[in-house]
Amino acid sequence: MSEVKTRIQDLIDSNDVVLFMKGTKEMPQCGFSSRVAGVLNYMGVPFLDVNVLADSDVRQGIKDFSDWPTIPQLYVKGEFVGGCDIITEMTLSGELDQLLDNKGVSFDKVAADKIREANA
Asked: Quick one: pLDDT at residue 120?
């Protein structure tokens, strides 16, 4: 396994929720990353943000690692969940709540409901 793949695997293994994104959770650098980080922040999900713009090896490495062409990419308890469209869909359908519940990740259920109400 390459050094970058090992680094990515270590990040995913040592954190319950990891978002590989452009920018940081405080200052996203693209709309898609901003949307996913915003959902996680609003729902109170503790997560590690990995800024792919700060490391070109990780930026390409995560695409190869997941065999997924776009950023952001969300991992929950070691499992690749998806990118912006998938996370948006899962949030609105309640699937993200179920996934977080099933994986034992804490989040604000009231906030999750508010997101759905606002987008109904």
From this structure: 85
